[in-house]
Amino acid sequence: MPEHGDRGRAGNGGGTVGESPRGRNETPDERADRRWAELIQEIRVAQTGVQILFGFLLTVVFTQKFVELSSTDKTIYITTVVLGASATGALIGPVSFHRIVSGRQIKDRAVVWASRLTFTGLVLLLATLISALFLVLRVATHDDFVPWLVAGVVAWYLTCWFVLPLWARYRYTTSKG
């Protein structure tokens, strides 16, 4: 699982303690602070989306249309709600993690664990979005093309969220020699 960080290959902050190949000169504490600030900014974007989606999902059960859903659609709905709740927990988790370990001189480790929680939250958010899209399109159309349409959107999400960043990570951080 990728970690949010600056370790490893040339060009991504590896190198000697205190200095990266790009010339950034920072202490381990400054580096942990910077990485934490960057991670929190990233989490804010995902948290907002997942919280709005999750809030909307919680209201669906109280609509008249819900009682008309087939048992399959209700199962998809329940799965979507559980995925949304799990994504919300994982994306809020870094804040709690930081609060509990704050002042214990382990920010560098807290950043690693918060990064893992964030990555897990993004994967759960992806699953929530896929499940919600599948349910909405099934209810809206009842057509056989829905799984194909959802598969296309999944391919797009995977490309934007994982394939392009991993390609760039490999392309721009692998040594040329």
Automatic annotation (TrEMBL):
Spans traversing the lipid bilayer: 43-63, 75-97, 117-139, 145-168
Start-end of Basic and acidic residues biased regions: 21-31
- According to the record, the residues making up region (Disordered) are 1-31
UniProt name for this protein: DUF6328 family protein
Keywords assigned by UniProt? Answer: Membrane, Transmembrane, Transmembrane helix
> Mind telling me which Pfam families this protein's record contains?
DUF6328
